[in-house]
Amino acid sequence: MAPLPISSIRVGKIEDVQELIKSKPNKVPERFIRAANERGGLVSLKTHFHQPIPVIDLSELSKPHTNDDFVINHGLEVDVVDDIEKVAKEFFEMPLEEKQKYPLEPGTVQGYGQAFIFSEDQKLDWCNMFALGVHPPSIRNPKLWPSKPARFSESLKGYSKEMRKLCKRLLTYIAISLGLKKERFEEMFGEAVQAVRMNYYPPCSSPDLVLGLSPHSDGSALTVLQQSKDSCVGLQILKDNTWVPVLPLPNALVINIGDTVEVLTNGKYKSVEHRAVTNRERERLTIVTFYAPNYEVEIEPMGELVDDETNPCKYRSYNHGDYSYHYVSNKLQGKKSLDFAKILN
């Protein structure tokens, strides 16, 4: 098992957003203010009369059909979902000195803080994050698993076990939708890697100047997003060069296709570029599960989905650990990380 790849270089002092707003600043600090063409703007659903993401009922559907979906009847018990949300909220509500016992250190992708920061002048996201490797156990850093809240470890392990089952089901449906045998993805993934990231987006007095999370696609195979029940609109997906807000649905999970599935399917499924915006009055909490092949696995388009005449190979062969290293060693810039794998004509 390869070690979890390197992450952000710790650069200078990174401001904690929750602590920042406690001081009630008169204006948003310059470090968070985006260029005019990068700003999220004020969220409005008035121009979007329909839900842009299809809703898939896993109790009835045999296969998914898009690159970004809501799933309902996903099999996760309500109390499991509620508990991880409560535990995550309790963690972010702890004093800063308690959370700083689990810092995101140089050379890791786990811990509390801001990731993907590589320079003193790089703009910061209006967000606090806490990320942990979950499976296989060898990627866990026990020192970063909090002792408070008391139920944290138990809750996360139970939740992640159920999420793992869900991801395997979804990959089965994707394989069927492509005419592949249902075990195709799981057979090639080996002992799949699973990680979780908890995101807390405090209210922002000037949400039109900042971003909660920079635009990006995920390097995983699948990403499962759980939004807290009282979440405001924060997620936006890029569709036809327009950022479309996604209205949260009760008891639904958002499924994002990651870069790895785009490569494996030779572009038949495409990873979704997305970002998060903030709200003037309301906070937002999300729990994100990343599911990907083992770091030792060689990734390339599946032979069944490549045809020299009608669908030539679009991506080169590479080691998944190398791609993971590449992904976390660069700041978030849309789908630019996928250039690592593309065959340039």
TrEMBL record:
Q: Which residues form the signal peptide?
A: none
For the keyword Metal-binding, the answer is: yes
Gene3D superfamilies, per the entry? B-lactam Antibiotic, Isopenicillin N Synthase, Chain
Q: Where is the Fe2OG dioxygenase domain?
A: 184-293
Keywords from UniProt, A to Z, are:
Iron, Metal-binding, Oxidoreductase
UniProt similarity note = Belongs to the iron/ascorbate-dependent oxidoreductase family.
Indicate what this protein is called per its UniProt record: Fe2OG dioxygenase domain-containing protein
Annotated organism of origin: Brassica napus
